[in-house]
Amino acid sequence: MSCYGGSRDMSTTAPVSVVTGAAGFIASHLCEALLARGHQVVGIDGFTDTYDVNQKRGNADELAGSDRFRMVEGHLMELDIDSILDGADYIFHLAARAGVREGWTPKNFEHYMRDNSRSTQRLADAALRAQVKLFSFASTSSIYGFNPQLPTPETHSLEPRSFYAMSKSLDEQVLTAYHRLFNLPTVILRYYTLFGPRQRPDMLVHIGLKAIAMGQPLTIYGDGEQTRELTYVHDAVDAQVHVLDALPIGEIFNIGSGPTASVNELVAEMEGVVGKSADRVYADRHPADQLHSQADTSKARTVLGFDPTTTIHEGVKAEYDWMCQTVLR
After folding, report:
1. What percentage of the chain reaches a pLDDT higher than 90?
2. Looking at 164, 191, 232, 320, which residue is catalytic?
3. Average pLDDT, integer, range 11-23
4. N or C terminus: which one in the chain shows less Cβ crowding within 10 Å?
5. 106 prior amide bond cis, ω within 30
6. pTM, 2 dp
7. Are 323 and 205 in contact (CB under 8 A)?
C-alpha cells in the first residue's frame, strides 16, 4: 500500500468521504465535487492495467493538489480497509473492472469476480464495522440485458450478458442483502452510457473522436442503428451529490442525461465537433452489446431532484476539448 496527497486531519469537523476507483473517469470528477463541498476525501485506486495507467496517474496528480485529499494505492482485496475507513462518514464505491467484450475465459471471469464482486463484499464488511452513513454503489444499465423494455424502469428484470454485467448484478444482490440483513446504508445508481472529459480510452466517444481527429478508420459494430441513452459525466457526479443530500437509503436509481442517439447519429455529432468526416468501417455486432437503451429516470427526478441538462453536443465538445489538451497533443 502507498499513500500520497494531503494528510488526513481527523480533528476537523469536515465530513470524510472515501471514494474507490478515485483516479478513474467518474470517480476523479466526484472527488473534485466532494472537495468543493468541503469534504476530506480519501481516494482508493489499484491503478490496474485495464486501461492506460498514465491517464489515471494524471487524474490522481490533479487531485493531489488539495491538502484535503489523500490517495491510497492498492487493490481492495489486499488493503487494510478497516484502517482506511477509520473515521469515514460516506463511501462512494466506483472501482470496477468495466467492459462488456472481455472473452469468455476462466481467467477473465476470475478477473471480474476479484476486481468487482469479491472486492465489493470485502468493502461492505468493512463498511459495516466502520458504521458509515452511506454506501453509494455505481452499477450499470448493462444488467438489464440485450433488449429491455424502453424506457427501462428500475423494476425491470435483470438479464446480464457479459462478465461485467453479471458481476455488477451480483454486487447489487450482495449489497441489497447487507442492507436488509445488517442495515448497511446502501444506495445503488445504475449508470447509462457515460461520456465526457477523462473518459476511458476504450469507450466509443473517446475512440471515435481520436480516430476522426487522426484520420484513422473507425470501426462500428453492427449497422450503427443501435441506440444509447447517454450520461454526461458531470450529470453522473451530480446524481451522487443528490444521493449525499437526500440519503435515500435502500433505493436503486437509473441515471441518464436524457438524450438518446443511434451510434451513427453519435458519430455524426463527433464529426461536427472535430470538423472532419469519419472513415467508417462496419463490423459484426458483438453479442454482449445491448441493442437499445433508454432509462426511465422518473424515480431519480422525483426522489433525488435529479435534473440533467447537458446536451449530446455540449458533452462531446467538452470531451474533445479535453482530448485536445491531453491525448491529442
Report:
1. 86
2. 164
3. 89
4. C
5. no
6. 0.94
7. no
Q: Which three cell numbers stand for residue 55?
A: 491517464
Cα–Cα distances (Å) from 302 to 21, 147, 247, 267, in that order, read 29, 26, 14, 33
Cell of 204: 466509443
Dig out the grid coordinates for 72 from the structure. Answer: 491510497
Q: With beta carbons less than 8 A apart as the criterion, state whether 205 and 199 touch.
A: yes
Residue linked to cell 462500428: 220
Distance between CA 110 and CA 299 in Å, rounded? 34
Strands (E), 6-101: 16-20, 40-45, 69-73, 90-93
Q: Residue 96 is placed in which grid cell?
A: 470496477
226 grid coordinates: 443501435
164 is catalytic: yes
Q: At 290, is the secondary structure helix, strand, or coil?
A: coil
Q: What is the largest CA-CA distance in the chain?
A: 58
Task: Please state, rounded to an integer, the average pLDDT across all residues of the chain.
Answer: 94
pLDDT at 105: 84
Gyration radius (Cα) of the chain, Å: 19
Edge-first strand listing for the sheet containing 2-5: 2-5, 69-73, 40-45, 16-20, 90-93, 134-140, 186-191, 252-255
Distance of CA 93 to the CA centre of its chain: 9
Over 70: is that where the pLDDT of 4 sits? Answer: no
Question: What residue spans of the chain are helical by DSSP H?
Answer: 25-36, 53-63, 81-85, 106-112, 119-130, 163-182, 204-214, 233-246, 263-274, 298-299, 312-325
- In this predicted structure, what is the pLDDT of residue 11? 47
Angle at Cα 141 formed by Cα 136 and Cα 145, nearest 5°?
140
C-alpha pair distances (Å), 92 with each of 97, 124, 154, 260: 16, 11, 20, 27
Give Cα 168 to chain centroid, integer Å: 12
